Amino acid sequence: MSKAQFEKLRAKEDKKKSDNYQKNVAKAGKFLDYTQFYIDRGTDTKDDWKKDVNLGHRMTKTKYDWSGGKGTENENKGWFTK
What we know:
Elements: H1 3-27, H2 34-41
């Protein structure tokens, strides 16, 4: 490996490292306020969340249809299938 090739490789690695660092710096200070979460959920004053199906947990959709059924997106109520 020549000196020029090595310097090119080193510059590429340094740029990748710097880009990753900047991506993480951009995330700094962004977080979910713990107390606000409980206020929104209602656990600060009442226990109605315990009667909910998900017990106060946040639910998400996944990319895949884990039910095992075959069909289109509309047939599976918004779940994606392949």
